[in-house]
Amino acid sequence: LNSNVQRMVLGWEPSGSQRDSSAPPSGSLGNTRFVLHFGDLSYAWSVGFIWELWQTEAAPVATRIPYMVGVGNHEYDHVTGGDKDPSKAPGNGFHPTWGNYGHDSYGECGVPVYWRFPHPPPTGHGVFWYSFSYANVHVVQLSSEHDYTVGSAQYAWLDADLRGVDRRKFPWVVVTSHRPAYQSQDYSSDYQVAENIAKNLDPLLLKHRVNLFMTGHYHSYERTCSITGGVCDEKKLAPVHMCVSAGAWLDKTGYLGKAWSLSRHQTYGFANVKVNGAKNLTVEFWGLSDANKRAVERGEHKHSPAF
After folding, report:
1. Which residues neighbour 47 within 8 Å (Cβ) at sequence distance 6 or greater?
2. Which residue of 53, 79, 92, 131 sits 20 to 30 Å from the alpha carbon of 146, by its own alpha carbon?
3. Distance between CA atoms of 7 and 221, rounded to whole angstroms?
4. Cα-Cα-Cα-Cα dihedral sign, residues 97, 109, 105, 186
5. What are phi and psi of 6, to 5 degrees?
6. Are the beta carbons of 8 and 300 closer than 8 angstroms?
7. pLDDT: is 2 or 61 the higher one?
8. What is the pLDDT of residue 226?
9. Pair type for strands 67-70 and 35-38
10. CA pair distance 35, 271, nearest whole angstrom
């Protein structure tokens, strides 16, 4: 997140594939204040030295600014060994009948991420879900790998956390989750999970006027309209959903043709979020082309719908 911004419109406009002169130089953090990495961190799959390699790669950033992590399926999902799970989820974790929560951590069960990131904000349930505020932005990191359905502990916590945000001080609210609620690439089992995330969380996100819901899991970039209940919200009171998981390898699967999917890019990249007081929240997606950074698109929330 970067606190220095000039302008932006929600209305999103492609910036084209040309090299953007405003791209920060390689290795530069610019005015970045902290990093959000919402799951699938190292892909270590229970191999400890891969964690070491990944943290060595992340160190030039993580030793200079806060590097805030969440958990994904490759840190947590398991079907045995639940007694070792530091989150103390019942049994072997979250396995709804409509889910595809398998053994994707290959035995990690959340243990390495718990011990390697031992000091998350003391606002939730350890590294698994928590919130923090910076300047005038409130950020929530959810766990899509734990029960988030209506009536669960995480759901009740999220409702209470968002209810407690003073929007006069924190006009912007960003919620993250590893798995998306809206992503239209043609993976049937993941899409079914996304539908259930939306079914359970959409009412809360709308109720508390969340501005932006950022996710990963898929290896591509996708942005929606302001959406709730599977329908674009003409009043723009619901959050925009952005899947920003364009790393590791790229998903080349086709798309389902959903009307709410406004932008899709199969390229490596990252999102740069900027705030300018209560006036606007800007998001830029920086993709890669021929080893050069390029701004694939820019967009803006003008004034928070909380007011």
Report:
1. none
2. 53
3. 23
4. positive
5. -100, -60
6. yes
7. 61
8. 95
9. parallel
10. 10
